Amino acid sequence: MALALSPPCLVAHDVPVDATIQAFVKPAGRQLDVLVRVPLKSIRDVDFPERERGYLDLEKLDPLLPDAATIWIGRLTDIYEGETLLTNPRVAATQISLESDKSFASYEEALAHVTGRKLANSVNVFWNQVTLDVLLAYPIQSDRSEISIHPRFDRLAARVVTVLRFLPPGGAVRAYEFVGDPGLVHLDPRWHQAAGRFIELGFFHILDGTDHLLFLLCLVIPFRRFRALIPVVTAFTVAHSITLIASAYDLAPGALWFPPLIETLIAISIV
Prior knowledge:
Layout: H1 2-5, E1 18-28, E2 31-39, H2 58-61, H3 65-74, E3 77-81, E4 84-86, E5 90-98, H4 107-114, E6 130-139, E7 147-151, E8 159-166, E9 174-179, E10 185-186, H5 191-208, H6 210-220, H7 226-248, H8 258-270
Parallel strand pairs: 1-8
Antiparallel strand pairs: 1-2, 2-6, 3-4, 3-7, 5-6, 7-10, 8-9
Helix pairs in contact: 6-8
């Protein structure tokens, strides 16, 4: 009864509503560098040391960062070299940064920032106003190997957006954006892997849109035979693909009146 009536006071950080994760993946020689920026408010189960008025004590926090990076970033990131899972990454550097810091605009700036001078302890910031920047180093056999990644950062917030850039040797930067847990992603995919990814995204894009399904249902209603449906569904898919391609190449008007017009025309077409 004493335990039930007098519970201890527990302190924990709430799960953030949303979080944006920025990452770079760069193979070089026999090492794979992974740079990650995570809002510190997404790191839980860590008692952040504080100074007066609740400001972070950055000097006391610094020794805690490698373990936090291992648990909340390293263990949530599965990286494969071919079919081999890379384990036990080395936490090469950690850094606490202000939310206004723009060093993750490029790999070179991010690397110089993470491995550079620490934020002064005299800076007055709270735990939910900074980011945790981490450099993880994985040993690999070759920088020409096929690299794939499964980022499970969906645990860091209710809604997580991951912006990742892959820098293959001698190639152009490949940019990716994920929402939640995207599953296994091939960072330098072959044509069939990329095509499969687009087909999967397109399938769920249709399912997520009630207006798409209702419009398709209206097209299907007059038909009674499966064979007669195939040309209709195919035409719908091709037409939708054409509109997406036109949008990707900026062939659609960019005026503010255009999206409401399209939504209105969709409603009229359904009626």
